[in-house]
Inverse folding.
């Protein structure tokens, strides 16, 4: 009798509430996943993927329950939505040292391992943005910094983060200078040039810093911001000279 | 719209954070020709450790053996320990393992990052070859850091902006640019991807042009199955890679065959020195190809360079003639000067062409000068790299763009002349200085850097 009670108690202990058995081979939808993975759902809802225009479980994990982690941890599950193979997000990562190592060695890695403890020789999208398997705050500096420190010293990480903030602050100053250039004369053409500078070039700079790609920090980042800035000034200058001549 | 608070915040971040951190002397100065004129950003210690890195002194005291280092760091920074365990340093074919203290020292208060010379204490041949590359001048790996910090735009711009330059140019000051730490694998450095973090992007699309070539296509299709532990010598690889050609036989020099100097200036490819280099190229190509065929390819590259420079010089002439006639707007003197350039402060002039320092003329210049910069630095170099790596399509597309650039520059030059003519006729004069000399970025650059 005592033995039976013990077995029953043990069964209650190991069986998740409301999850009598693992799903079979039939395709699942998000609702089915959420039914069991409640804890993950809470953090997912709080993060960018949990928003109305975000990404649900099957977008990354596929509709099948087998080996879902291994697949979702790989870059392919991210790039399709994040600008594609040749988009700035993937390209800036691919050209970083981390990306190079992943390109060369990734096929041999054991992708069933959790996203922590330097289980992968180089970090991947998920290793940093979903460190420890978090489904929530993917852009949180705390999460990102923690993942760096699996391999790098705290001092190195802090120094690089602080320097990156300064690099970005300089980008902000270039944007401000561009906007001030047409401050009194906000013609649609100037605003359009400014918006491209802000949404494309400044984003490149952010990606370059985040992904540690020198090209995106420099040629697609700061050196491109310099070009954007002087072209906005040139457009404003030309406009002013034509006005002075009475041509506008 | 851009919020003014962001400007204040940006200025705050730049001005209140002391660049020097625990790792750098508070009064650390720049290096190179203009070393007195600039102070390094804190992150510089990691790109030129020999010049700037200072060991942490308030964390751990004592001297440690390699085993002791590993015991702690397995928990603190497991990645580097795992890497080291898989490296040849941990299980050499002969002798004792090379542990942490061999490269970093054993006193935790006086830890150092290994310089190329430290690596050279064991890898003597590689280090000697690397250092001897200097005699071929720049571009090359060994002079990369010295030349970076001597560039006017490096000195002029905020140091947190130009740290991106240092990441690549640090190839001169640390070996892990190619042999990533703590695996330090020769096989990894032989793969073309090992080069592309720096050899990519608009001025040097080495990755794009190589991968588009027949050699690169073969590598992409089969490379994963090749035995990368083999030396870079004849018969070991079915197609050449960056290192196979540029570091023949594994020799740690990339500049010993540098004839066309990265394509950034016109060269005579048939000087006595270049004839020696041509022989070296032919020796590499003839590992697989006929000698005559190899010689012909070099001639084709010479021809391509001639065609590119013909177009570039036409554009350059256009700009120089605008400069002579005072039609550049804003002209030098009406835009921020390079602060380190005393000549510019007494006799401002627009830097047009390689020999006038055009490499720095991508900012604080008029639009037409930037157009020429992009023609020269982006499209010209794409044409060159495409030709050198055997990606003809990229070269012919780049030549189409060079022609379009020239047309655009001529059209704009005509517009500038016309505008100036009308202004002179009507006495109209819009002063460019308020717009071009000042602004949140330009002011910080002038006053704080």
């Amino acid at each position: 009798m005592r033995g039976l009670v013990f077995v029953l108690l043990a069964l209650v202990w190991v069986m998740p509430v409301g999850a009598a058995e693992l799903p079979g081979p039939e395709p699942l939808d998000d609702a089915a996943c959420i039914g069991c993975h409640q804890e993950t759902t809470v953090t997912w809802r709080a993060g960018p993927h949990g928003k109305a225009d975000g990404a649900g479980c099957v977008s990354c994990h596929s509709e099948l329950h087998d080996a879902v982690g291994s697949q979702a941890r790989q870059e392919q599950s991210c790039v399709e939505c994040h600008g594609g193979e040749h988009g700035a997000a993937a390209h800036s990562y691919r050209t970083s040292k981390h990306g190079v190592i992943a390109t060369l060695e990734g096929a041999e890695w054991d992708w069933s391992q959790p996203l922590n403890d330097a289980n992968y020789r180089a970090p991947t999208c998920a290793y940093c943005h979903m460190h420890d398997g978090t489904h929530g705050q993917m852009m949180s500096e705390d999460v990102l910094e923690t993942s760096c420190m699996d391999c790098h010293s705290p001092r190195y990480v802090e120094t690089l983060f602080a320097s990156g903030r300064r690099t970005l602050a300089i980008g902000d100053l270039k944007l401000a200078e561009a906007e001030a250039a047409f401050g009194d004369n906000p013609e649609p053409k100037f605003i359009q040039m400014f918006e491209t500078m802000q949404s494309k070039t400044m984003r490149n700079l952010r990606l370059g810093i985040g992904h540690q790609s020198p090209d995106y920090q420099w040629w697609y980042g700061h050196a491109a911001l310099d070009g954007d800035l002087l072209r906005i000034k040139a457009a404003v200058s030309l406009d002013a000279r034509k006005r002075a001549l009475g041509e506008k | 719209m851009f919020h003014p608070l962001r400007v204040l915040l940006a200025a705050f971040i730049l001005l209140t954070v002391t660049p020097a951190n625990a790792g750098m002397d508070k009064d650390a100065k720049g290096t190179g020709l203009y070393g007195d004129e600039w102070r390094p950003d804190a992150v510089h210690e990691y790109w030129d450790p020999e010049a700037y890195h200072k060991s942490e002194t308030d964390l751990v005291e004592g001297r440690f053996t390699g085993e002791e280092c590993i015991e702690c760091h397995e928990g603190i920074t497991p990645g580097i320990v795992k890497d080291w365990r898989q490296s040849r340093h941990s299980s050499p074919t002969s002798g004792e393992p090379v542990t942490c203290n061999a490269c970093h020292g054993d006193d935790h208060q006086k830890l150092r990052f290994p310089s190329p010379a430290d690596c050279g204490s064991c890898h003597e041949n590689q280090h000697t070859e690397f250092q001897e590359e200097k005699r071929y001048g720049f571009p090359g790996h060994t002079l990369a850091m010295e030349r970076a910090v001597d560039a006017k735009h490096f000195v002029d711009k905020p140091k947190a902006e130009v740290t991106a330059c240092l990441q690549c140019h640090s190839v001169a000051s640390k070996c892990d640019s190619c042999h990533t730490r703590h695996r330090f694998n020769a096989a990894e450095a032989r793969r073309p991807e090992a080069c592309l973090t720096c050899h990519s992007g608009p001025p040097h699309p080495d990755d794009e042009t190589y991968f588009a070539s027949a050699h690169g296509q073969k590598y992409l299709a089969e490379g994963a199955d090749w035995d990368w532990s083999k030396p870079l010598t004849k018969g070991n690889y079915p197609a050449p890679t960056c290192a196979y050609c540029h570091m023949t036989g594994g020799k740690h020099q990339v500049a010993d065959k540098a004839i066309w100097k990265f394509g950034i200036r016109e060269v005579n490819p048939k000087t006595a020195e270049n004839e020696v280099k041509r022989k070296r190229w032919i020796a590499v190509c003839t590992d697989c190809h006929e000698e005559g065929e190899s010689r012909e390819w070099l001639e084709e590259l010479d021809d391509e360079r001639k065609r590119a420079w013909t177009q570039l010089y036409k554009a350059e002439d256009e700009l120089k003639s605008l400069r002579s006639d005072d039609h550049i707007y804003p002209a030098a003197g009406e835009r921020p000067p390079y602060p380190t350039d005393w000549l510019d402060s007494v006799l401002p002039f627009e830097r047009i062409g390689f020999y006038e320092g055009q490499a720095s003329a991508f900012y604080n210049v008029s639009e037409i000068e930037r157009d020429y910069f992009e023609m020269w630095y982006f499209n010209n170099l794409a044409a060159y790299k495409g030709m050198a790596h055997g990606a003809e399509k990229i070269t012919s597309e780049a030549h189409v763009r060079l022609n379009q650039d020239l047309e655009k520059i001529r059209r704009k030059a005509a517009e500038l002349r016309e505008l100036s003519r009308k202004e002179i006729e009507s006495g109209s004069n819009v002063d460019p200085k308020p717009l071009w000399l000042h602004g949140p970025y330009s002011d910080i650059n002038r006053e704080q850097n």
Remarks:
- Chain B has two domains: 4-204, 291-448.
